Amino acid sequence: MNRSPVALRVRSGTFRPPTLETLPAAVAANVAGIRARTRSTIMAVVKAGGYGHGAVTVAHAAVAAGAGWLGTTSIAEASVLRAAGLAVPILTWLHPSGIDAEAAAAARADVAVGSVDELGALIAQAAPPVRIHLHMDTGMSRGGCPRDRWDELIGLAQRGQQARRVRVAGVMGHLPLADRAEPAENAPAVARMHEALKAVRAAGLGPRVAHLAATSGTLNDPATHFGMVRVGAGLVGIDPSGTVAMHGASRLTAPVVHTAAVPAGTPVGYDGAYVTDRATHLGILPVGYADGIPRELAPRAGVEIHGRRFPVAGRVSMDQIVIDTGAESFPAGTSATVFGPDGGATPAVQDWARWAGTIPHTIVTGIGPRVKRSIA
Ligand SMILES: *Cc1c(COP(=O)(O)O)cnc(C)c1O
């Protein structure tokens, strides 16, 4: 129990170690499902390492399935996609270290600009002209230019474009109710977006590609689609509104590394938070909260082995979890599926989110670096 599972793994070297497998065919199926719901261009958002599934892998699958753009938060991420041979337009919008115009040009990345200061700093750089998307606050107050400064931003963009420092290529908003399926609730943001487009056009900067919706708006509300939709969660099978069934795009497996037969009344793990109510078998899986298994789990949490669900017993440790396998004793090396798209006894990412009281996004983006990656 107290032996390090990592050391065990290295010594034995015969098991398939904990592995997160990305399923590009599922990404392609999700893009096909999205295309059936919109005629707008699809931007595949692959920030946070493609929501933990591998940015390059997800980007290739999405583009092959018909996505016309890619989206990331930083120019550095855009450069990685270019180096991997992805040629479609890329937009970046957060710029954790400010916008480097030189780097944007080198990556052929469009950048979203959400404030007068940010645009001013960009124009001041002696660098090749940069394609920009004016990011207007459409009601979220998280990035985006506030309504009362739109005229200033648009005026500065006009002058920047005349001076050939920037080229206005798009207008961007964001829906504050990203996990709702109720179109009426999006109406104020949609109206704001139309207002922004009108202002940009009136300044002689339009028409440009306009984009507002993320996954939920794309799946549930055509009024939010405009010329392009920015889909991230949906690529990997997550509908934030929980209304549309999509294809899970990853599978996390871990081997049983140790098995023990224990009598009734045996406390398991830290604090003895779980006590066996009968003679049973316990299996150790070498994944813990350092690998992204949520520490705060409902008692229903479990994993799949050979088509059956077995509960997680007791506390999640840093490096391991214990499962209660009842009458079954699985030999070391037996593969358990922590989550996957398979249905039946196999938990989905959404099940883990429910057990942990969180959203599926945090599960898939939280899988740690010790877990091996593979592509199906
Ligand atoms: C992450 C993000 C998206 C994608 O959102 P999903 O709900 O994951 O599809 C779209 N736009 C912006 C600005 C984002 O930050």
From TrEMBL:
The gene is alr. SMART domains: Ala_racemase_C. Belongs to the alanine racemase family. Its cofactor is pyridoxal 5'-phosphate. One of its GO terms (molecular function) is alanine racemase activity. Catalyzes the interconversion of L-alanine and D-alanine. May also act on other amino acids. Keywords: Isomerase, Pyridoxal phosphate. The modification N6-(pyridoxal phosphate)lysine is found at K47. This is Alanine racemase. Residues 249-376 form the Alanine racemase C-terminal domain. CDD domains: PLPDE_III_AR. Coiled coil: none annotated. It is an enzyme of class 5 (isomerase). It catalyses: L-alanine = D-alanine. Its EC number is 5.1.1.1. Substrate binds at R142, M318. The keyword Isomerase applies.
